[in-house]
């Protein structure tokens, strides 16, 4: 066993850990690992990531279900709508240059991270936590089809899109959105893989090894999910996606533009923090200071 293969398998455990804890991030890690460490071509890495994440999600979802963190109706309908979109996206992705797919992959990661860090707008019942409930059929079908198309196209299992769709748009608690997203991810990943296999051949030896290691990580991660505060989970997810998206975007950019892109992402992060500080009353940056100032000084 070569050092490269050992490194790939070790990093694959982190893929599963990410899926188990965050309900996403599997493909965000799998695609860069297979491209930059294992040496896969972009399209082969995207197709392999769909298999790895699909199998790992299917295994991990049972631990979340035992903890009551899966909305089966929402997940199955969302996943069914997403499978159609994912299959079409997989067919289209096989005919698009790999570099363009990776750039699109990275741009969506950065945009999604900003949405997750910004958080969900509060409704009139200020301070009320999100309620665990099944989402309306029309919303589930529409969101599922759109997310599925993107999933199949860029090879992302969909967690970094499904979790925000369920948590930010649907209003589910973050822990329930994570568990439910795994059902959706598994269904859409296999549909997207079917589309890619019409034009792409996989190295099944490495793919199955990565899958086995990721399953080990997912079983450990699912035991941690639900024990982590929702706000901390959402912020960790957002920052994680931002870092990985920036890395992929810089790697795919021409050498003379890499510093410009890095500076642009840094400026976007600073601007987001500024908007949060000055215009969002519930901004955690400002609230920390506010909480300190409200503590009475000792006599």
Your description of this structure?
- The chain is mainly alpha-helical and 299 residues long.
- The protein is 77% helix and 0% strand.
- It contains twelve helices and no strands.
- It has helices at 3-22, 26-37, 42-66, 72-93, 98-118, 137-154, 159-169, 174-196, 204-224, 230-252, 258-279, 284-294.
- The longest helix has 25 residues, at 42-66.
- It is globular, with a radius of gyration of 19 Å.
- The N and C termini lie far apart (67 Å).
| Structural class label | mainly alpha
Shape: globular
> What is the number of strand segments?
0
Quaternary organization:
single chain
Head-to-tail CA distance between termini: 67 Å
What is the succession of H and E elements? Answer: HHHHHHHHHHHH
| Uncertain segments | 122-128, 288-299
Largest sheet descriptor: none
- Average of pLDDT: 74
Radius of gyration: 19 Å
**Percentage of residues in strands:** under 5%
Fraction of residues in helices? over 70%
Per DSSP, the total helix count is 12
Question: How are the SSEs placed, and which strands pair?
Answer:
Layout: H1 3-22, H2 26-37, H3 42-66, H4 72-93, H5 98-118, H6 137-154, H7 159-169, H8 174-196, H9 204-224, H10 230-252, H11 258-279, H12 284-294
Helix pairs in contact: 1-2, 1-3, 1-8, 1-9, 2-3, 3-8, 3-9, 4-6, 4-8, 5-7, 5-10, 6-8, 7-8, 10-11
Tags for this model:
single chain, 299 residues, mainly alpha, 12 helices, 77% helix, globular, Probable membrane transporter protein
Gist?
It comes from Pseudarthrobacter polychromogenes. The chain has 299 residues and is mainly alpha-helical.
């Amino acid at each position: 066993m070569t050092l490269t293969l050992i490194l790939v398998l070790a990093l694959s455990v982190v893929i599963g850990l990410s899926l188990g804890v965050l309900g996403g991030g599997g493909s965000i890690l799998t695609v860069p690992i297979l491209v930059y460490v294992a040496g896969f071509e972009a399209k082969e890495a995207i197709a392999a990531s769909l298999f790895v994440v699909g199998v790992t999600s299917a295994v991990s979802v049972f631990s979340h279900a035992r903890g009551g963190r899966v909305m089966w109706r929402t997940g199955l309908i969302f996943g069914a709508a997403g499978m159609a979109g994912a299959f079409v996206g997989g067919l289209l992705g096989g005919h698009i240059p790999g570099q363009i797919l990776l750039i699109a992959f990275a741009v969506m990661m950065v945009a999604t991270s900003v949405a997750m860090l910004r958080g969900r707008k509060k409704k009139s019942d200020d301070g009320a936590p999100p309620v665990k409930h099944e989402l309306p059929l029309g919303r589930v079908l529409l969101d599922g089809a759109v997310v599925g198309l993107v999933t199949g196209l860029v090879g992302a299992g969909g967690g970094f899109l499904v979790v925000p769709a369920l948590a930010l748009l649907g209003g589910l608690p973050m822990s329930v959105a994570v568990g439910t997203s795994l059902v959706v991810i598994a269904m859409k990943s296999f549909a997207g893989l079917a589309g890619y296999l019409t034009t792409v051949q996989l190295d099944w030896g490495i793919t199955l090894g990565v899958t086995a290691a990721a399953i080990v990580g997912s079983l450990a991660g699912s035991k941690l999910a639900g024990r982590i505060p929702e706000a901390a989970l959402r912020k960790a997810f957002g920052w994680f996606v931002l870092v990985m998206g920036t890395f992929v975007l810089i790697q795919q950019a021409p050498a003379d533009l890499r510093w410009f892109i890095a500076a642009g992402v840094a400026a976007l992060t600073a601007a987001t923090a500024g908007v949060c500080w000055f215009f969002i009353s519930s901004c955690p940056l400002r609230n920390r200071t506010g909480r300190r100032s409200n503590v009475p000084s000792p006599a």
